[in-house]
């Protein structure tokens, strides 16, 4: 079954409690696989922590695999909590011409 990450909900931007997420894919807008292959983990490491011998990723930016590609799910709350990190992430994605999909439903990636 192929699920789309695009949320089909009506405009919920009026709801102050609703979080919005976007997906940055490790695929360029012209369809090339982005290298290095660990870019998503490196990006998410900015807010990660360690417990024991395990890396714990922040829910604000989480590396995932989607349709066989490295990606990160970014909670738009990152913009307010860590504006400098948000700007760097967006600059990285845009300057490397990575695909960005707004209004994704993170539940389908769980």
Describe this structure in words.
This protein is an alpha+beta fold and about 110 residues long. It has one domain (about 20-110): Alpha-Beta Plaits (2-Layer Sandwich). It is built from three helices and six strands. The strands form two sheets. It has a four-stranded antiparallel β-sheet with strand order 4-5-1-6. The chain is globular and about 40 Å long.
Helices and strands in order:
Blueprint: E1 21-28, H1 39-44, E2 49-51, E3 54-56, E4 61-66, E5 69-75, H2 78-81, H3 83-95, E6 98-104
Antiparallel strand pairs: 1-5, 1-6, 2-3, 4-5
Average pLDDT over all residues: 85
Which structural category fits the helices and strands? alpha+beta
CATH class: Alpha Beta
Sheet having the most strands: 4 strands, antiparallel
Oligomeric form: single chain
The geometry reads as globular
CATH fold assignment: Alpha-Beta Plaits
Number of helices in the DSSP assignment: 3
Spans where pLDDT lies below 50 across 5 or more residues: 1-18
Q: Strand order, main sheet: write it out.
A: 4-5-1-6
Task: Report the order of strands and helices.
Answer: EHEEEEHHE
What's the CATH superfamily, by name?
Uncharacterised protein PF12112 family, DUF3579
């Amino acid at each position: 079954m192929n699920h789309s990450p695009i949320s089909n909900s009506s405009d919920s931007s009026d709801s102050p409690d609703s979080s919005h997420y976007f997906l940055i894919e490790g695929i360029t807008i012209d369809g090339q696989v982005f290298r290095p292959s660990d870019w998503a983990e490196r990006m998410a490491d900015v807010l990660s922590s360690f417990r024991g011998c395990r890396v714990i990723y922040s829910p604000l930016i989480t590396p995932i695999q989607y349709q066989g590609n490295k990606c990160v799910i970014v909670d738009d709350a990152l913009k307010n909590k860590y504006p400098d990190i948000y700007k760097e992430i967006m600059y990285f994605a845009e300057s490397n011409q990575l695909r960005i999909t707004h209004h994704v439903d993170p539940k389908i990636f769980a």
